[in-house]
C-alpha cells in the first residue's frame, strides 16, 4: 500500500512543472504524508461502505489515502468515490491513480470533469426540491480546495448566495458546499488556509460551519511554508475534521512542525475556548501551546474596546486616491500624514526621510478624513512574515507634532474616541497592553495571517479602564530604557492585584 502512495507522490512531483493552469486553478497537490494524516482523521467505526467526495481532486491523492486506509485497516471491502476536477488534463492521471486499486477493493468510482461549484449548487437546489433530501449525500468528504478570491459581483457569488452561502473565496465556497453535501453524521476532512478563523469577510462562512457541523479536530503546522514545501505556498494552513450535525464536544488541537509529523503533539480543549460563547463575530481560536492565554489567566481582562468607550477605525486616507494632495515634506498649508514608519515604539519620528510622503494638503476634499491633534494609539495593519510580532502598536500624543489636525494613512488602525483623542494615561496603557508578548500570543490564536483588522481589535479583550490607566502611568514614567520583559512583567504584576 505504501508503494501506491509513493507512486502517486512521484506523479505529483513530476507533473508539477507541466501544469499549464497551475496558479489560475490553484493546483497545489497534497503530499502523501499529509494525505495519509488527513485520511487517518476519519472515525474508524464510520468507514464501512463509505460514499466519498473529493472536490478539486487533482490527481486523486486524497481519495487514494482514504482507500489505502480502508484496505490496510480492513475497514471495508467496497467504497463509492466521486472525484471532481475542472482541469480535463488531469482526467487520465486520476484514472491512473484509481487503477492502482483494481482488485484491491470493490470501487464504484466516478471522475467528473466539471466545475464543482456549479455542479454542487445545482445539486443542492435540486435536492431541496426533493422529498428525500439526503438521497445523494456523502458520508465522507476529503478536500484540499483551490484558494482564490472571487469578486462580489461574480457568477460564483450569485449562485452560492442562492443556496445560502455568502463567501468570496474558492476554498470557503468548496468547504461550505461540501458541508451541505454531507449526510448527518458524515465527516469532512479539509486542509484550508487559516484565514477563515477571524475577520469580517468570513463571518457568514464561520456561522454556516458552526451551525451545520461540530469541530472535532484541528491541526496546525508550526512552520508557515512547510506543509507545501515543494510548492512554497506561503499560507498558514489548518487541517479540519468536522462532523455534519454532530454534537459539539471538546476539540482536539494538534501541531507539528511540518508534514513529517515527527514532533506531533495534541491537546484537548473545551469548545468554549475555541469559540467564546458571547462572541458575535464567532472567531475560531486555535491555541497550540497548551498554555493559558492572558484572557484565560486573568478573567478581569474581559472588556471590549467598545465597553472602554474606544473606537477603532482604519486610517481613512488612502494615499493613491489623493495623490495630488500629497507632499514629500511638510510645507505651507499641509498637515502631517502618518504612516506606520513614523511610529517607533513610544516615539513619533516626524518628518522622516522615506519613500512615502510626510504631509497632506489641508483642503476641503481631505478635511473629512483628518483628526484633531490628540492622543491616539495606532496599530499597523500589515506586518511582514519575518517580523517577530503580529501586533505592532504606536502612539501619537498631543505634543508629538505642532499641528491642529493630522491624517492617518490606510495602513494603520487608529484607536480614538468619537474621532478625537483619548486620555494620555489610557493611550499609553493601551499602547503598553498591545505591545506585550502575552497579547501578541493571544492574538495569534485567532489570527493566522499577518494582517490586523479593525474587527480583530474590536473583538479582543482588554483590562479595565483603571488597570489601563495604571499601566499607562507606569509607562509614562519609564518610556526611556524599556525592555520587552519589563512591559510583560508589569502587565502581569498589575493584573495579579485584584
Ligand atoms: C489545491 S489543488 C488540490 C488537489 C488535490 N485535492 C490534492 O489534494 O492534491 C485544487 C484542485 O482543484 C481544482 N479546481 C480548481 N477550481 C475548480 C473548480 N471550480 N471545480 C473543480 N475543481 C477545481 C484544481 O485544478 C486543482 O487540481
Q: Cofactors and ligands present?
A: S-adenosylmethionine
Estimated share of beta-strand residues? 15-25%
Structural class: alpha/beta
Largest sheet: 9 strands, mixed
Topology, number of strands: 20
What form results from the Cα inertia axes? Answer: elongated
Alpha-carbon Rg, integer: 26 Å
Under the CATH scheme, which class of the largest domain?
Alpha Beta
**What is the averaged pLDDT score?**
92
The low-pLDDT segments are 228-234
Number of helices: 17
Tell me roughly what share of residues is in helical segments: 25-40%
Briefly note the CATH topology name of the largest domain.
Rossmann fold
Biggest sheet strand line-up: 3-2-1-4-5-7-6-8-9
How many separate domains make up the residues? 2
CATH superfamily of the largest domain, called what? Vaccinia Virus protein VP39
Assign the CATH architecture of the largest domain. 3-Layer(aba) Sandwich
What's the N-to-C terminus distance? Answer: 60 Å
Amino acid at each position: 500500500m505504501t508503494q501506491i502512495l509513493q507512486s502517486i507522490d512521484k506523479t505529483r512531483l513530476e507533473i508539477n512543472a507541466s501544469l499549464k493552469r497551475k496558479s489560475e486553478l490553484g493546483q497545489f497537490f497534497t503530499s502523501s504524508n499529509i494525505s495519509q494524516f488527513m485520511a487517518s482523521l476519519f472515525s474508524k467505526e464510520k468507514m464501512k461502505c463509505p460514499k466519498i467526495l473529493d472536490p478539486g481532486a487533482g490527481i486523486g491523492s486524497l481519495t487514494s489515502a482514504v482507500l489505502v486506509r480502508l484496505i490496510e485497516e480492513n475497514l471495508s471491502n467496497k467504497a463509492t468515490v466521486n472525484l471532481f476536477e475542472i482541469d480535463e488534463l488531469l482526467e487520465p492521471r486520476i484514472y491512473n491513480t484509481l487503477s492502482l486499486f483494481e482488485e484491491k477493493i470493490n470501487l464504484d468510482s466516478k471522475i467528473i470533469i466539471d466545475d464543482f461549484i456549479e455542479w454542487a449548487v445545482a445539486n443542492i437546489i435540486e435536492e431541496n426540491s426533493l422529498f428525500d433530501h439526503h438521497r445523494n449525500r456523502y458520508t465522507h468528504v476529503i478536500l484540499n480546495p483551490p484558494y482564490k478570491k472571487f469578486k462580489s459581483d461574480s457568477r460564483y457569488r450569485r449562485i452560492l448566495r442562492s443556496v445560502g452561502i455568502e463567501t468570496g473565496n474558492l476554498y470557503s465556497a468548496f468547504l461550505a458546499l461540501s458541508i451541505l453535501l454531507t449526510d448527518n453524521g458524515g465527516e469532512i476532512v479539509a486542509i484550508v488556509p487559516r484565514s477563515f478563523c477571524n475577520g469580517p469577510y468570513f463571518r457568514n462562512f464561520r456561522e454556516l460551519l458552526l451551525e451545520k457541523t461540530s469541530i472535532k479536530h484541528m491541526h496546525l503546522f508550526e512552520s508557515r511554508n512547510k506543509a507545501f514545501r515543494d510548492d512554497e505556498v506561503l499560507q498558514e494552513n489548518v487541517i479540519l475534521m468536522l462532523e455534519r450535525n454532530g454534537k459539539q464536544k471538546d476539540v482536539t488541537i494538534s501541531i507539528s512542525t511540518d508534514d513529517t509529523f515527527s514532533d506531533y503533539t495534541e491537546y484537548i480543549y473545551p469548545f468554549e475556548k475555541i469559540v467564546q460563547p458571547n462572541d458575535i463575530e464567532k472567531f475560531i481560536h486555535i491555541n497550540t501551546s497548551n498554555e493559558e492565554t492572558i484572557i484565560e489567566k486573568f478573567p478581569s481582562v474581559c472588556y471590549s474596546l467598545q465597553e472602554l468607550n474606544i473606537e477603532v477605525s482604519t486610517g481613512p486616507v488612502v494615499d493613491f486616491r489623493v495623490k495630488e494632495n500629497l507632499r514629500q515634506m511638510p510645507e505651507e498649508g499641509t498637515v502631517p500624514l502618518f504612516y506606520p514608519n513614523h511610529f517607533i515604539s513610544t516615539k513619533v519620528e516626524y518628518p522622516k526621510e522615506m519613500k512615502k510622503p510626510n504631509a497632506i494638503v489641508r483642503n476641503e476634499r481631505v478635511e473629512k478624513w483628518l483628526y484633531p491633534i490628540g492622543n491616539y494609539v495606532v496599530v499597523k495593519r500589515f506586518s511582514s512574515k519575518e517580523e517577530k510580532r503580529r501586533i505592532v502598536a504606536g502612539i501619537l500624543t498631543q505634543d508629538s507634532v505642532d499641528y491642529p489636525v493630522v491624517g492617518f494613512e490606510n495602513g494603520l488602525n487608529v484607536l480614538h474616541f468619537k474621532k478625537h483623542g483619548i486620555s494620555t494615561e489610557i493611550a499609553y496603557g493601551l499602547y503598553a497592553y498591545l505591545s506585550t508578548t502575552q497579547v501578541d500570543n493571544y492574538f495569534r490564536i485567532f489570527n493566522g495571517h499577518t494582517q490586523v483588522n479593525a474587527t480583530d481589535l474590536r473583538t479582543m479583550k482588554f483590562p479595565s479602564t483603571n488597570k489601563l490607566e495604571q499601566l499607562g502611568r507606569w509607562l509614562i514614567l519609564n518610556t526611556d530604557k524599556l525592555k520587552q520583559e519589563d512591559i510583560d512583567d508589569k502587565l502581569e504584576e498589575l493584573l495579579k492585584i485584584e
